[in-house]
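Can you give me the bound-state structure? Components:
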Amino acid sequence: MFAPKRWKKALPVAAIALSMGLFTACSSGGSTGATPSDGGAESGSTPEDGPTLVMWAGSQTPLVANFNPYAPTVLHAALGGIYQPLYFYNKAEPTPPVPLVAESVEWAEDGMYLDIHIRPGIEWNDGQPVTTEDIIFSFTNEGVQMDYVDSAEALDDNTVRLNFNTPAYTNEFSLLGATYIVPKHVFGEVDDLVTFANTDNPVGTGPFMLENFTDAAYTAVANPNYWDEGHPAINRVQWLGIDGNASGESMFKTGQMDYATMFIPHPDQLTDTGLGYVKVSSPNPVVIMTCSNADLGCTGAQTDVAFRHAFDVVIDRDEINEKAFYGLSTPASPTFAKPGRDEQWMAEGVPEKNPTTADPEEAKKIMEDGGWTLGADGIYEKDGQRAAVTLVSVEGWGDNNAASELIVAQAKKGGLEVTHQTVTLDQFTDMRLTGEYEMVFSALVGTPISDPYTIYRNCFTTSFTQPVGTSLEPNQTNYARYSNEAVDEAVKAAAMTNDPEEKAAAYATIQENIYADMPYISMFHGGNQTFYNQTEFDGWPTESDLYAFPASWDGISAAYILSQLTYK
Amino acid sequence: MKYYLRRITFYIITLWAAVSLNFLLPRLMPGDPRTIFMEALLRRGGDITPAMEHSVDVIFGAEDSSMWTQYWQYWGNIFKGDLGVSITKFPAPVSDLIFQALPWTICLVGIATIISFILGVTIGAYAGWKRGTAADGIIPFMTLIQSVPYFWLALVFIAVFAVGLGWFPIIGGYSLRDFYAGPEWSWAFVKSVLYHGLLPAITIVVASVGGWVLGMRNMMVSTMSEDYVVTAEAKGLKQSRVFTWYAARNAALPSLSGLGITLGFVVAGSIVMEQVFTYPGVGKLLINAVQNKDYALMQGVFLIITVTVLAANFIMDLIYGLIDPRARANV
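Here's the bound-state model for the whole set.
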């Protein structure tokens, strides 16, 4: 996403500018940039006294202590709070990444290696310095499993070079923003990196240190030797385990909670009590998946591209959003890049956003152009096949079920017959894996940063799918069985370059093809609602100043926010 | 003696069947834990890196051996007291999870059940004794309370007493603000536990007392038409004596055997109460295990429930054999 070399200069400047703009209210006023004077080694400081910040990251009781970033059941505080990646990426807006453990990085011209400069003077919370050994270990150990990293070597005391076996530009976020730097002197001694629970004073570089743990809650205190002078400015954070949203809401109402991201149908009830509120859309697009490819064994009316296009225009997304999603969703884009963040990648000629209202006449026109004729019962037919499909959603997922019911009624106006059926979660996963479905109400995994590459590769390319009847491999997520050579080629081309123009050209090819073929009907981005205590704490992200994705369950983002908060 | 031998043999066979079913049933359920775990991560919006997938494979991919081998290992482990490791609460051993949750469940649900029983039987006996009078008017009211879903009742109680009036805490078994480090042996902690247990206990009692009242009241009415009660009254015994020693004592027998079974099920916890109050207990372990196909945890919880229910029944059987000779003769 950045041209080679140029980034090195741009980053610290941008970071300082960002921090100045955002945190002028900070009492300590420290700079967060990687200026040479900001050594970090002697940055010991204890925050002033103040209340404990109580937050809920979605954990349910009983909590089980696990602070190993390689474990699937790791607790939220470990990710970002105790262990940090090289950079912090803002998943909400395309602002430049903020350096954490790294001071700067440089890509090779051809993307075959990456040089990482460690922040000078940075230390683990046990007092030992962070060395090139630690960085090499963090990128090559068994827990990280990066098959594109060939080798890692120390160029000097402060620089590590990662060598790749293929241009690794597209893995930038993985490498810099999602790989945790762990101490070799702790993790190197462990037999099995995955089953290690790491509960005894976890050693990390992050702003917080584990204090107490119980099966109902755990607390972490500010790391007095944190490299970022003057941060964190709050002294203790408590993560709770709560079994239901209703309790979370009650705790906010009675002033017993300070920070949580959770679904509340009527947020006014909480904001009226003086709580801060920010709504952001999830990067994951809600879609209606279709088993689209008859060549790979899909059957049903939805294998006809005219049917899918007619379906796209006949549904009334505004009505669905209002009635099924409490008006909290925002429109998604048929390019599968995220509106409001990824406009730079959206090709001309493809609509930026989905239609919001229904157009049954247009739907009928599309069907007739596609060779369908209106039958006596008001449903289209073609070669003896009726334009009828079964739309499946998961039992108990109320929003999806309500939306599906609305679609049944809306589709009828365009001469399409949709039957809604609910299945168990088990059946649902099985249907998606084997491709034995017509349409399912589901979601795709979007990209955390402003670059739609991974969603194109994982959900639209031939190598990420299987014929119907064969279960997808664990990493394959092309549920629609979509296969298009032009898309496969363009995805390959995009991986080979870091030049924004070449990339945009490749993405344009992909977008034109997937819009024409429409294997997934793009719907919305779901809304994440975050509530926070703004009477005692200051420095939260707001709608106008989204310096981080505000979700309390997103470890790295939440930890970054916590490290920026101050007492009022 | 022959009676007891038969009962013991019967219980051993039942136990074997129950424990074997306990092994088999979870494996007959559709779906696999790995995909469910990934789906949960996705729905929460997390990033799934290849490293994360690898880790999930390491933890979930343990079961490759045949069903028979697994079955024998399962029995072996039960005798060693090893119930395995939970995958959704990794790396906690199942036995730790259960034994941390059991005291909370037994104390809260157990005490609430006994209070509810005593209260219900007393009210029921009195209503039956005064049948047809104003005291009997309590019955429709009890039926009403009985038919209110517990979930709704608990939410209303929280909204009114915990949020609206602020008399009670909303979540937890003790104050998480005052005891960061968890349970400790101090008077302040005990007070905190009692205070936090009060509202959940009240909701359980309110929701379950109606059943005991109805059962006891009807039994009381039919007992009072028995010859020995009529005789007692004809002899001119004091009303209080007829009430306590002739009518209520006999009418309470079916309720008592019901209590035996209910107490056996106490260890299963109160799933809804634990969810609504975020109260520690066994019920949520069970529901989590079933939802996430956590076989080890599911088996562990089922095993504890099975064994306790069987033990409660066994003790009831022995007591019945002791006090009622007919039970011994007919078997």
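A couple of observations. DSSP finds 15 helices and 22 strands in chain A. The two ends of chain A are 37 Å apart (CA to CA).
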